Amino acid sequence: MLEGYRGKLASLLVSKGIDIGDKIRVRKGNLEVEGILFPSFSKYDDILVIKMDNGYNIGLKIDGDEIYLVCKKSVAENKETKGGEKSRGEVKIISTGGTIVSKIEYETGAVKPALTTEDILEYLPQIREIADIDAEVLFSILSENMKPEYWTKIAEETKRALDEGSKGVVIAHGTDTMTYTASALAFSFSQMTGPVIMVGSQRSSDRPSSDSPINLYSSVLLAKKSPFAEVSVLMHGESSDTYTLAHRAVKTRKMHTSRRDAFQSINDIPLAKVKWKNNEIVMMRNDFRPRGNHNTLDSKFDTRVFLLYYYPGMDPSFLETIRDKVKGIIIAGTGLGHTSEEFEPYFRSMTKDGIFIGMTSQCLFGRVNMNVYTTGRKLQNAGVVPLGDLLPETALVKLMWILAHTNDVEEVRKMMLKNLAGEFNFRHSEQLFPRWYHE
Amino acid sequence: MLEGYRGKLASLLVSKGIDIGDKIRVRKGNLEVEGILFPSFSKYDDILVIKMDNGYNIGLKIDGDEIYLVCKKSVAENKETKGGEKSRGEVKIISTGGTIVSKIEYETGAVKPALTTEDILEYLPQIREIADIDAEVLFSILSENMKPEYWTKIAEETKRALDEGSKGVVIAHGTDTMTYTASALAFSFSQMTGPVIMVGSQRSSDRPSSDSPINLYSSVLLAKKSPFAEVSVLMHGESSDTYTLAHRAVKTRKMHTSRRDAFQSINDIPLAKVKWKNNEIVMMRNDFRPRGNHNTLDSKFDTRVFLLYYYPGMDPSFLETIRDKVKGIIIAGTGLGHTSEEFEPYFRSMTKDGIFIGMTSQCLFGRVNMNVYTTGRKLQNAGVVPLGDLLPETALVKLMWILAHTNDVEEVRKMMLKNLAGEFNFRHSEQLFPRWYHE
User: Fold this and answer.
1) Per the database record, which ranges form the Asparaginase/glutaminase C-terminal domain (chains A, B) (predicted)?
2) Which residue(s) pair with B200 in the sheet?
């Protein structure tokens, strides 16, 4: 089946006995390209898409008879997987959906998660060269539709894979809420035999600029070889393709809607840099959790929480409308951790009733400090708990996890302030704030 | 009165006839420092604080008899203001409170806004060298307590000053919500004779590392001399004291809880750089609104809005609890502008009832694009309006302003998408995303 190819080019491929997945060679003037024939998603009939050995897709305009079959897919595959040998599953890839496993839905022109992990492996055979892969499609959803109950399922599948001997687990996930899921897994696993590498892509696999192959390749490499056994988010490190970065789950944030290097560590440095071209993992810190002997999982979440983004003009009586629905609130406050003083009596009354209220900052960078200004002191006095340099989103997921384990508000407070998964960084340095282009 | 001085040092000053505000000279070994005697907020009895000509405070440990009176305050003042001549008010400073006009409250150790603008001028006489100043204390509040009704008062006072001939207005404001107020003023003024420079400081004036004098100095310089007549936020440009940056109000965000260069332009470049040491204004763009002939103000706000920060696990029925209270909602969605699909029917029903729902991204950088993924298309179909590269906070203030002017939802949509104060930047470049320290 020549998925996506039409007209003259499709006929040419048929006449040469070439199928998707076959290794082919294309000559265009002085340029000679060898690689795997990839399905075409181009709107033009004369574009041939090849996945090259370096992991890139290339789209070539075919004017004449310059295509040669190098070897059939079955031969290529057998060579790589040593035909017939059952996969040992050194690395388990769990696909949950998202752009990294997406293709364009032709009827609407929008992108939908559809490709299976097997499809991905077919397009990126190099992955098989670094690890034997076990693959599974657990969900096929865009990550904006991800829910805490799915987090639990992903955590359980992950544990099963690690228990069965996988050296690491790669979770293909949509980028929208990838850091929320990553934090959920990080709080759920207190011990692990290997890392969990969450991976996504900002540009779908059918686009020549896709970050999907390099991110997936890097994540498999890390899953197999990383010295750490933590939950990490792996994405491009800068806008070109030189390296990828593995961030600590709980300190990561998607900071751009479309850039390939959108994911960045906030208030902390990443765990590792992956120089994927050399199969090299460069650790950026040594305070990581190493691979352990067993996996301890406790993955329950209570969604009776609310993330309150404070702004001037917000009516404090709004709190009354959610009061009966929540066991805890995370505030994204202003500056060092403030809301208007008018919220004080509402907070006081809620915390007296056993509702946990924690303060983070909408600045994102830096840490809250509620001892500097009068308002901060008043809010603390009303029971609001300052949460250091915790990101608002991480604080929320952590609170969901804690509330599923205790209802005792003093215990909730203690656990919220305990460094469970590296979510607090007490040593901020000048280097943690990015540099802006004004010099 | 020798505010803050105690013990031996106070006696020494008295014996020399030296008061706060006098010009003095201090010799310490080879070091000779000349400047204005500043009140001491030090906990040590032997620290003398001098405001030097370069705008810095310096704290000197006094061991012996090294202090000389250069000239009394009255003489120094008369020299500068040409004694008796009424201030022409080239620049109006309106003080609303905040750290820039704060001092430590000794009973609690917290910082409270207390210093008047006159106090500030006394400590920073250099300001008088660049412009004749009119000063006014309008409010004395920490900016987390700022409200839309105060925005209107600030706008009216600003217009009065411009109408009365001020070349520009400086508004001293707490940093917590400074960008909200700045956006509110930006949407309120459609024409201006001069700029409004919002200025704050991250460290209070009584700390040696205070950014207050340099920021205030820069803002007065800009208010008097800038070619643009827009609302701008002026703060430190980097963590040392080399330059300050004037950001366009509607594109600015406080990105750090404590750094002096916390304020940064998001998805856009600043208006100007101020090399304050040379009294130099370097324009960074030429698409600014120039000084006009008159001031047109329309400063009403409707606070029946809500900023919804989406997260996985958020219950869509939450919308029912706020439905009757709002005329509009700004969503800080994930990625390119999403919430879970489960919100779709709620949004559809609300927009049918004439409630405006606009989408921004919690990524902050980049722009929403609700045509790429199925979810985005569904939400648009339900009436959710994508708001390009608008910051969530700017979108909220803009919506408050628009809703005070029309109830027609189609008109609201049109105005939300119209570029009223430079809040949309359609030309993003690679340089707009900051650089992270991983190379």
Assistant:
1) 304-416
2) none
